[in-house]
Amino acid sequence: MALDIPELRSLSGALRHFARYPSPRILAAQVLLAATVRLSYPEWSGGDLWILILIVLYWPLQEWFIHIRLLHLRPFNIGKRRIDPIVARMHRYHHRNPWEIPTVFLHWTVPAALFPVQLLFWFWVTPTAALAWSGILWFSAAALFYEWAHYFTHTPYQPSSRYFSAVQRNHRNHHFHNERRWHSFTAPILDEWLGTGGHPSQVPRSKTCMTLGIEEDVGTDTRPAFPDA
After folding, report:
1. Is 127 exposed, middle or buried (0-12, 13-18, 19+ CB in 10 A)?
2. pLDDT (tens digit, 9 = 90+) per residue, 7-64?
3. CA distance 84 to 211
4. End-to-end CA distance of the chain
5. Angle subtended by helix axes 22-39 and 129-153, to nearest 10
6. How far apart are CA 109 and CA 220, in angstroms?
7. How many angstroms separate the Cα of 210 from the Cα of each of 14, 76, 103, 215, 221?
8. Which of 62, 133, 137, 159 has its CA 20 to 30 A from that of 77?
């Protein structure tokens, strides 16, 4: 459990532990690759800045939407077939075991599989290779930052900045106060704007934070294939 790992109580220790997992390593490699290739092009323009601005605006909306609509998706039936996506099952396990560090990360296959999709997308929507690599760089950096933001909220590390303290406080409220609130990570203010925030004193405490209301999971705590360090 994260609370039993002394290394995680300091920023340097938390960073070292973070770097042991496959997903952060893959994303860091993508950022390094994209930065190296992008710097090989001499031209810089306002387009590079606009791509960065668009990703900064888009990313929090994406993570909020995926969290609330996909990760918290309840099983349902289509005819006789039960639909219960693996990502939703993994997320329910994560809620039942919030201090199990491997459960906070994307499976390594996700960033690995999405990288070629990124290549195709950015080379399709941008007019130059330089701008395409800017898009790949900023988007990969956003994904890496998201992994860090989720990870450190599940460690005993206490951030000193107001921003990171808000990220940690909101996500812990999501896990231990009401799972239907506080879905954003990198932009805590987004929950206030979208009606999923609020002060804990004004939000009813939920009894289903750990099960997400899927009681059939209780007692069948089979661990999905989370990545180990």
Report:
1. exposed
2. 888 999 999 999 999 999 999 999 999 999 999 999 899 999 999 999 999 999 999 9
3. 15
4. 13
5. 150
6. 25
7. 25, 20, 14, 10, 12
8. 62
